[in-house]
Specification:
Number of helices: 25
Number of strands: 15
Oligomer: single chain
Strand order of the largest sheet: 1-9-10-8-7-6
Largest sheet: 6 strands, mixed
Distance between the termini: 28 Å
Structural class: alpha+beta
Shape: globular
Strand content: 5-15%
Radius of gyration: 24 Å
């Protein structure tokens, strides 16, 4: 599971950075330090950032090699996410990049500038559909101009595919509107066209695990196709199977990583991941996750494989992703108190007693420094991750939670000014946000990932959420974890634990910001007239809208209109805390009992539709801000230095000058898949 971040944005011209702190202790010690520029560039609704890698210089050469090999493994799968997102993406990317590199015409026109922006938006989203809204990105140049570019650069792209860029076909990457057909209305490349959700459900219903208490993650690593006999079958993502060319490169780098593993547990886990990529065995996938959970010692960790299912309208297929992490020892020590007290949080939650875990096991939490990201985690990245996703593994063996510390740091240093003043209700709210929003965000992430996703249990005999809650499973799970965080953010125990100096003020600020975001500020991300589609946005809205309606009679949250502007003001934080607990209890019941109808009603009634009048007002008020509503990152490049024998002796870290520079570099180095898979 992931926690995503909304950040304010502004534009600064990016520079190339290479500092003493960003170089190996075994490398060049004479590089003059320069101020770190966090912002690379801004275009459309996107801001591209850089992140630092504090602590890199303290790693041994062996540990640095491990980081390097793991980042190379992650990047080697880059093409996979492009193809998963849409069947034509790789062909479209090749054509757009060829035009960009070979066009010799006038590059001062609006048409060319719009073409550049379109290509950057496609790069950022790993395809032609927006990374967050899932809507197809429409070019701001004409088909005639595109035809001219194709002709003048001798770029090959079939007419049918070129048409898709401009017409209404495949308009939504992930469609969650059942009336349009979950698969029929989705462009995602997990299922052949013409296959229905009902057929897929029937296909997987015939599969069974050797132990019903340890269900396999059926469908996680495969595409469903219709064979020549008209029957459904799986194309497994493995060596020798679908995406085999890229997976073989991933395996190559993972095998090198295994040779420099920090300890036997880490090496054993890497060995199982390699075996999983070679065989596609879901049993091996479970074995790997358990081994990875147990590999808690050392300075380096990673996420790599087909993991999150947000991009599948049926909640089954895993998107490829990779995050390589260096432990932040100081911050991890501060936040370890949360994971150490996981049982206290579970025991004192408002859940129905039979839905609580009697024994919370294996919960670990670390703040980490990201060293490289790829696939579904790049350029747009989460700020927190909790894995594995299999409920039975979490219940029996525990989970790992991480907060991406240097990513959060970049958000803070690149944040826009002014939106808080525009949308907050009063000066007191603004003052609390300035003082407590940073620690509040960090604690929300910790409680969401460590306690939230690890809490509660499913009743015996009830299927997994993807089976029972189906297309609503993702948003309900993210909302459930948010509710756990919200319930405990307003609790004196946090101050007793030494995590905050004033629990009540921080709790008040956390509630203010959540309601402000859920009912107002996240609307700047939507085009007027759009419904809420993305799972995290849905959960923020259905939580906020539900408690707003629940408290109407007692005016717990009042809706204020002042000078033609709408604000929300919380009048009773104690009562709101109770409402968050009541909603948490109900959402856990929905998950524990597999109550699809109740889950659907909650999401559809509160989390999808948008007040058009309010939305128009918010968009108008937001026009004064030049900063973009979405952020993502380029990765620092790890450049090995070798001796005459070819052995790596040190590393240099280079920050990309531009977004385009890194995208072309990745296409040159990591384009391992054929254009048609």
């Amino acid at each position: 599971m992931k926690l995503l971040k909304i950040a304010g944005l502004f534009i600064v011209i990016g520079l190339s950075i290479s500092t003493n702190a960003q170089n190996s202790k075994n490398g060049d010690e004479n590089v003059k330090e320069k101020p770190f520029e966090y912002v690379v560039e801004q275009f459309a609704d996107i801001k591209v950032l850089r992140y630092k890698m504090p602590g890199w210089e303290n790693l041994s050469l062996k540990e640095q090699k491990l980081v390097y090999y793991l980042t190379q493994a992650g990047s080697s799968g880059r093409d996979i996410i492009w193809d998963q997102h849409y069947k034509y993406n790789l062909r479209i990317r090749k054509a757009l990049e060829n035009i960009y590199q070979n066009y010799k015409g006038n590059k001062t026109t609006d048409d060319w500038k719009n073409f550049e922006i379109y290509l950057k938006r496609v790069w950022f989203s790993n395809g032609i559909h927006h990374h967050y809204s899932n809507d197809k990105i429409k070019p701001s140049f004409s088909r005639a101009y595109f035809n001219q570019l194709l002709k003048e650069t001798k770029t090959n792209l079939s007419t049918d595919i070129a048409d898709v860029l401009f017409n209404d076909a495949d308009a939504k990457k992930v469609n969650l509107d059942e009336s349009k057909g979950l698969l029929e209305g989705s462009a995602i490349n997990f299922y052949d066209k013409g296959i229905s959700a009902k057929e897929v459900e029937e296909f997987y219903a015939k599969k069974s695990s050797p132990d019903s208490n340890k269900p396999y993650s059926f469908g996680l690593n495969s595409k469903i196709v219709r064979n020549s006999k008209g029957q459904l079958e799986e194309k497994v993502w493995k060596s020798g199977g679908m995406y085999g060319a890229a997976i073989d490169k991933i395996i190559y780098w993972l095998e090198k990583a295994k040779t420099v593993a920090e300890n036997k547990s880490q090496a054993d886990a890497l060995g199982l991941l390699i075996s999983y990529y070679k065989t596609g065995s879901l049993k091996t996938w479970d074995d790997y996750n358990i081994a990875w959970l147990n590999a808690t010692e050392g300075n380096i960790d990673y996420i790599n494989s087909f993991i999150e299912v947000y991009n599948d309208p049926l909640g089954t297929k895993g998107a490829y992703e990779s995050i390589v992490q260096i432990k932040d020892f100081e911050m991890s020590a501060k936040m370890e108190i949360v994971s150490k007290n996981a049982q206290w949080f579970e025991d004192n939650s408002p859940l129905i007693p039979e839905h609580k875990k009697k024994n919370v096991v294996g919960v670990s939490y670390k703040t980490v420094v990201v060293a490289g990201e790829s696939g579904d985690s790049s350029p747009s990245t989460p700020v927190g991750v909790n894995l594995p996703n299999a409920d039975w593994i979490r219940a029996t063996h525990g989970s790992k939670s991480v907060s991406l510390g240097n990513i959060n740091d970049s958000y803070i240093h690149s944040g826009a000014k002014g939106r808080l003043q525009e949308f907050a209700n009063d000066e007191e709210e603004i003052a609390l946000a300035k003082k407590y929003s940073d620690i509040g965000d960090k604690l929300h992430t910790a409680l969401h990932e460590v306690i939230g996703h690890a809490s509660g249990q499913i009743k015996p005999g009830i299927g997994t959420p993807k089976e029972t809650l189906k297309n609503y499973a993702s948003t309900l799970e993210e909302g459930r974890a948010d509710l756990v965080a919200l319930y405990y953010l307003y609790n004196p125990k946090l101050q007793e634990f030494g995590l905050i100096d004033d629990w009540k003020k921080m709790g008040i600020e956390s509630y203010d910001s959540y309601i402000r975001n859920g009912l107002v500020m996240q609307l700047i991300r939507l085009e007027l007239g759009s419904d809420v589609e993305e799972s995290h946005m849905r959960n923020r809205q259905w939580i906020s809208a539900w408690v707003f309606e629940k408290g109407k009679a007692e005016n717990v949250i009042e809706k204020i209109t002042r000078d033609g502007k709408t604000y929300y003001n919380i009048t009773d934080y104690d009562k709101l805390h109770i409402y968050f607990g009541e909603l948490l209890r109900e959402v856990q019941r929905i998950k524990s009992e597999g109550d699809f109808n109740a889950g659907k009603a909650l999401v559809e009634n509160y989390g999808v539709k948008v007040d058009r009048k309010l939305h128009a007002e918010i968009l108008e008020r937001n026009k004064q801000f030049v900063s973009a509503p979405y952020s993502g990152f380029v990765n620092p490049e790890l450049i090995p230095k070798v001796n005459e024998k070819g052995d790596i002796v040190s590393f240099k870290i280079k920050q990309p000058k531009t977004f385009a520079e890194q995208m072309f570099d990745y296409s040159k180095k990591f384009s391992f898949l054929p254009l048609v898979n």
